[in-house]
Every structure is written in structure tokens, then in C-alpha cells.
Design a protein that fits this description.
about 200 residues; Jelly Rolls; 8-stranded antiparallel β-sheet; mainly beta; about 40% strand
């Protein structure tokens, strides 16, 4: 009886350690945004009013034309990423991966973008897509509530999950390394968690 109990206890402990190892915030994960904390992990490009408010880092207006980005100070190659975000129905935003020119981030200048834009005129590249790389079907909606993105980027393979559902996967090796960027291009966008785990 004691031996069975010890075996069960050992199994439970092993399962608990395994769960902790894969949980965001566990070993290997770096927290870039945690509630209203984390602006010091980024540089700001463009004129958006990125600021800490109500338990998140957010932007809702800009003094300049075009997009504004929060850009990580560090560059990443292979990584897992978890983001918790809130967008308005009319928000045009996204998360850039492996941005090669941090001062001028766009998919044209060398970056992948996980889209946050429910009203994209090109619905195949709306929320849940990798812009101009992997179209999304069916159409997902992020507006008006908190959502999660999980991204796995390993070599040319990039997989995106939106609220736990895989939306796209791609095999594209054009941009092997670069910064992570959080985009504001109109509407309200809030990020309350952003964690990254280099692989």
C-alpha cells in the first residue's frame, strides 16, 4: 500500500513539473508585459500614445500618420510567444515577428505580422492570419473582449493559435531573426500579457 501511494505521489509530482515547464511564466519564459508593467522592455516608433493604464499597455490615438509600434529591445530567432490583448471592433493592429528593421517595421520591410484587424478589406488576412503569408478561414473576431495569441516560430515554421484554436501554419524562411513589435494603426489596442520563450 505504501509503495503504491509513493508511486502515485511520484507520478503526480512528475506531471506537475511537466505542466510547469510548459506553462507560460515557467522556466525559460521571459515576461515582456505584465499588466501595466513592461514599457521599459520596448522602444516606441511612430506617434501613438503608448502608455500604461487599467492593468495593460495600450494606445488609442496618434500624433502622426501611419502605424506606430512598440518594438522589443532584443532580437529573437526561434521562440514561443503568448499574448493577451483587447481590441475594439474597428482596431487595426497586429504582432510583428522577426522584424528586421526595427525603426520601420512592416511586412514589406521584412517581418511577419500576426493580424489583429476584424474589418480588414481583405478578409482572408483579418484576425488570425499571417499577413500576406497565410490566409485565415473561417473568419475570427477579436473585437470587444480579451483574447490570446500563441505563436510558435521555429526555423521557417510559424504556427498561430487564437484563443486556443490553430488558425494558420506557414513554412516561410525569408525572415530568420528580428524584433517583436506591437502595432497601433487605429482603434484601441491593449496588451496585458506578453511572454516569450527562446527555443
Amino acid at each position: 500500500m505504501k509503495q503504491s501511494f509513493a508511486r502515485i505521489a511520484g507520478l503526480l509530482a512528475a506531471l506537475a513539473l511537466s505542466a510547469c515547464a510548459s506553462n507560460p511564466g515557467g522556466p525559460g519564459w521571459t515576461t515582456l508585459i505584465d499588466g501595466a508593467a513592461g514599457m521599459d522592455n520596448f522602444i516606441v516608433t511612430g506617434g501613438a500614445n503608448w502608455h500604461a493604464e487599467d492593468g495593460s499597455i495600450q494606445a488609442d490615438k496618434s500624433t502622426t500618420q501611419g502605424a506606430s509600434n512598440l518594438v522589443t529591445k532584443q532580437s529573437y530567432r526561434d521562440f514561443d510567444l503568448l499574448a493577451e490583448f483587447w481590441a475594439a471592433d474597428d482596431t487595426n493592429s497586429g504582432i510583428y515577428l522577426r522584424a528586421m528593421k526595427p525603426e520601420a517595421i512592416s511586412t514589406a520591410s521584412g517581418a511577419y505580422e500576426v493580424q489583429i484587424w476584424d474589418r480588414n478589406p481583405k478578409p482572408e488576412y483579418s484576425t488570425g492570419s499571417l499577413v500576406n503569408v497565410a490566409a485565415v478561414q473561417p473568419i475570427y473576431k477579436a473585437g470587444g473582449h480579451w483574447n490570446t495569441y500563441e505563436v510558435h516560430a521555429k526555423g521557417p515554421e510559424i504556427t498561430v493559435k487564437f484563443n486556443g484554436v490553430q488558425t494558420v501554419t506557414a513554412n516561410d524562411g525569408r525572415f530568420p531573426e528580428g524584433r517583436i513589435g506591437l502595432q497601433f494603426n487605429g482603434g484601441v489596442i491593449k496588451f496585458r500579457k506578453l511572454l516569450v520563450k527562446p527555443l
